[in-house]
Design goal:
mainly beta; 12-stranded antiparallel barrel; 331 residues; 11% helix; single chain; Porin; 14 strands; 2 helices
């Protein structure tokens, strides 16, 4: 755990340094560039919305292949990431929604889930000055369908389902946003969290730290969320979010970690490549051995890379075309 904390600290320092370098360069660029406002564009834009949809599909078939392998394999994964940011006066309201799902089907193993996530984050803030906001945060995180572990090819053990688990967070704290929506550091000493296991068979086994026979557990503690979004180049973007939670009511020294990273590279107008890396550590989530038995808590890692169709949408306002130049002959 100490090694993981050290890695996280070094990563955050690196991100902060890179963010500072980008901000300085942006200030230099702005100082060297004159800004001309279109006279017809007089209304301030309160909402900034957009998102990315990505669909990856792969297929393989083998016949009399001497190197070996399954006769057929198909994989499908999809990602929908949306945002809606509101800004008026001292009030701000940031909303993000990530939905991910993936399936893999092979001749020998059948169809299995490879990815599954729902993550809704909503944060309201009131500007106190000096880039500080007094903020309230809501977060819901779960998955769409049932998940299983596979002790062997003929056995599967239920490990998750929709709202089993689900994590619901309500938090009040301070939010530091030095440059609008690129970087945010939210810190709260007063956070309510519910761990929900809305499945009878999982609840009976005290899954995810919920007491046997119950379907939820209330926690109260400290919470921090760090988000970083940047445009590396015209075709490459990076998005990262790190959530940390310490439960005052039970082993506050055991900090729960949830970290997501997405790197997206646009190859053509409709084709892109994406790489995602997720890390989770929660002392109440037990690991599952290959034979299906439970072990102690362990760091969870998930890496997904794909190439496929992508569509990016936003609400950028298109300015009307400039009128044609007129020629005034000399008198």
């Amino acid at each position: 755990m100490r090694k993981l904390s050290t890695v996280l600290l070094l990563t955050l320092v690196s991100i902060s340094f890179a963010h500072a370098q980008i901000s300085i360069q942006q200030m230099r660029d702005e100082s060297d560039r004159s800004v001309k406002k279109d006279p017809s564009d007089t209304l301030p834009r309160k909402w900034k919305t957009g998102g990315l949809y990505n669909l990856n599909f792969t297929q393989a078939a083998l016949s009399n292949w001497s190197a070996g392998g399954d006769k057929s394999a198909i994989s499908l994964s999809t990602l929908l990431s949306m945002y809606a940011f509101y800004q008026e006066g001292k009030n701000s309201w940031d909303n993000t929604l990530d939905m991910v799902y993936g399936l893999v089907s092979t001749t020998s193993l059948g169809t299995r889930k490879s990815d599954d996530r729902i993550d809704l984050l909503s944060k309201y803030g009131y500007d106190l000055g000096k880039k500080l906001f007094f903020s309230g945060l809501f977060n819901f995180r779960s998955q769409f369908t049932k998940g299983y572990s596979y002790p062997d090819a003929n056995t599967k053990v239920l490990t998750s389902n929709f709202a089993a688990p689900a994590y619901v967070i309500f938090s009040l704290g301070m939010d530091y946003k030095p440059d609008n929506h690129h970087f945010s550091l939210f810190v709260s000493p007063a956070t309510a969290r519910w761990v929900i296991v809305n499945n009878d068979s999982l609840a009976k086994t005290s899954a995810y730290g919920v007491d046997s026979g119950k379907h939820s557990r209330f926690e109260f503690g400290a919470f921090s969320s760090i988000t970083y979004n940047t445009v590396i180049s015209k075709s490459t973007t990076y998005k990262s979010r790190l959530d940390l939670f310490s439960n005052y009511l039970r082993r506050p020294q055991d900090v729960s970690i949830y970290w997501t990273n997405i790197l997206a590279v646009k190859v053509t107008r409709l084709i892109s490549m994406s790489l995602s890396l997720d890390m989770i550590y929660d002392n109440d989530i037990k690991s599952v051995h290959e034979n299906g038995t439970q072990g102690g808590p362990a760091l969870q890692l998930k890496e997904v890379m794909g190439i496929g169709l992508a569509y990016k949408f936003d609400n950028k306002k298109k300015l009307p075309p400039k009128p044609p130049a007129t020629y005034n002959p000399p008198e």
